[in-house]
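Can't paste images in this forum, so I'm doing it all in text. The chain is below; anyone willing to post the predicted structure tokens underneath?
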Amino acid sequence: MKIFDLTGKVAIITGSTRGIGRSIAEQLAQAGAKVVISSRTAENCEEVAAAIKKNGGEAIAVPASISKQTELEALVKKTRDTWGRIDILVCNAASNPHYGSMMDLPDELYDKTMRNNILSNLWLCKLVVPEMRKRKDGVVIIVSSIAGLRASGVLGVYALSKAADMQLARNLALEFGPDNVRVNCIAPGLVKTDFAKALWEDPKRRADRESSTPLRRIGEPDDIGGIAVMLASRAGAFITGQTIVADGGVTIA
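Text version of the structure:
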């Protein structure tokens, strides 16, 4: 048995047109999974799906906003209509609409963050997990962040939501475990993505971060993509309810 093989598996990955989400989709496809590329913009979804197919993988594009329950329902339905099943759910898409003190946080941005970063993950689990439990096999991966492990004076509500994602994974892992459905988080550190551009594009800020990181670099999307393959495959079959930190050593330094 090839313990990293995902041949025949079907995976939905939200926020998969760039950065970490795209890497996860590409790496799952390379491992043999049929992948569903999803983000808000149809053109971007089609572009990534086409690139995966050009490299020999199987992919479809299904645009959806994580903030809209009806669009997530349509995402799941289109996946089932196309491939008949869902084996792997990767909740990667997230929002960070407020940068600054939590004392200046408007209620509507608090609500938006919690809806997009936590509630949408629960919505997707409600849509997808029942079939996994019935089949006695399935994987949910939530992309959290080391922000959920550390205090922040400027990313407070985002950090709050990412800590909640870790607890959501623990709760669901306990609930779904008897039916062999595994739920885990990946908590990346600073990764070179558009989402985190404000944290790495300034040369001085980046140099400061790299000098305080044991591996002396920030992450690349593929540093995270491979972890998702491990968690989704036989290689991760005895891991559930965990948060795997991939941060170059920042949180141990």
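Residues 10-252 form a domain with the Rossmann fold fold (CATH 3.40.50.720). The longest strand covers residues 181-188.
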